[in-house]
Target: 3-isopropylmalate dehydrogenase
Amino acid sequence: MNLKIAVLAGDGIGPEVVLQAKKALHAIGVMFDHDFIFEEALVGAVAIDKTGTALPEQTLNLCLNTDAVLFGTVDNKDNQDTNLNSEKSPSQGVLKLRKELGLFANQRPIKTYSSLVPFSPLKREIIDGTDFIIFRELTGGIYFGDKTLNKDKTKATDLCQYTQEEISRITHLAFQAAQKRKKKVTLVDKANVLETSRLWRNVVQQISLDYPEVALQFLYVDNAAMQLVVNPKQFDILLTENLFGDILSDEASAITGTIGLLASASFGTTKALFEPLHGSFALAKDKNIANPIASIVSAAMLLEHFGLQTEANLVYQAVQKAIDYNVVTMDLNPGTNFGTHEVGTFISNFILNKDDLLYFNTNNVHIGQSTIV
Ligand code: IPM
Ligand code: MG
Model:
């Protein structure tokens, strides 16, 4: 398969983790005879510095003309004092990119790795075996509704608005995903208070009739926030609107114990974007300590999206091997000898089928010794 991939590495640790994801994809290309062509473009604070805007026209055009976007991270430290409508806010660049590419469905898989369960603040018996996906609506709701601020800056409003069509398109994707999994969709809303939530319920209920084998459950968002830490294993597909999805996905990331492993994919009708869930972690930039696994997992999600399931599974297997052998960065093993680059190399070498031949003595890896030979 030939794929042209736009690479928007962004700020902070973005470039170094995305580089590891590219290494994994390159290895997959070699092993399975695929041609992945990467084209880099600017986004975020680095784009503001160089071009004056967080999402330059050239970057947007590249994304519109490639098969997929591999995204890194952008800084958000200037948000506090930036006019939010300004072109100079990295977050606004992200929102504009989502809107322009029509990325209405965001998927955030939350899955525990058994050996990493101790990193979670939650008890093993509560979280071990957790495996669900958050389907977050990404281009509507309060994020994109009209905003007002009166002249003396004492009153502000944000409009939350949804149309039947906006709800319907992501709902179908959620039910289709549930069909292939544990066959359960939980709609999270605030239908006891919000009119938009009542519209969500009606539309989702109606669509559920097309998927009789999938169970539909409704949950108020306050209760859902509690259920996530009390009994996360009950979820399969958690479907929700933009703002609730933003909040719940950060909460859910704590279940796995580290945000360094979580990735996300955003889909539209024609475009798709893949990125790690974590932020730009500017303090770690260029120190070779950032965990590259989330970015590598986002590359695996890209492969899955193009139907390359065997290839994606190999990436997941390589990630699992790195964790099993304790070839991990310091967030998962404070005394580690491995950095961003070494973890990425281990994973790409595993894909290339030469993990224990060239770089690593796997007999020693598990005890965290310096094993690069
Ligand atoms: C996310 C982020 C963004 C959001 C910010 C950077 C605008 O928090 O992707 O979850 O709120 O959607
Ligand atoms: Mg968020």
